Amino acid sequence: MGDRWAEHPIRPGRSDSPASIVLAAATLVVAVLSNLVPLAGWLAAGASPVFDFQMWRPLLYALTTGSILQGIINGVFLVLVGRSLEPLLGSADFAAVYLLSGLGGATALSLTGVPASFSGAICGIFGILAATAVIKRLEHQDIRGDIILITLFVIWGILAGARDWTADIGAIVIGAVIGWVWARNRWATRGRSRIAYAVVAVVCLAALVVTWLT
Known about the structure:
By secondary structure, the protein is mostly helical. The chain is built from nine helices and no strands.
């Protein structure tokens, strides 16, 4: 059979941002299911003693969102960001930064005593933005727009009275660290970046264990 798109001026192509699409879809599914079943009780993260040693909570925190509307907004923003940033970072690295930023946010919640939060998707976005800003800074690019955007988001969270804004700070820190590691190892073996991801995860989980034991 011939190619039915052969004579079309615009041919459909493969997505350049599959990771962001999958993550956005997963977040939206979680948002929908949380309105049908008590998913927040299973996936919320924070300093509540009930959550102690339930490792899946911080590991999956980046996929949580408080409402369907918030899930849609986060998903759309993630896809829009992913279209420009995922081809730069690579799908695997993009997903790693996103999920590890959620882990960093959950760790910050426990360290600062916030009992519970079910809004980790924004942490993934914060981490992606922070990682990209660091990469651009190391390449001597203008990052004023990135800094302004991140700052406005954080201020908005604080002024809105959200108790889990500390998670945003944790995500930014983790994203910035990973961005620095990624930029420094771009021309070296990619295995170094994988090791760095593992180190970040271990440090966050170790910090969580300390809070659980004290």
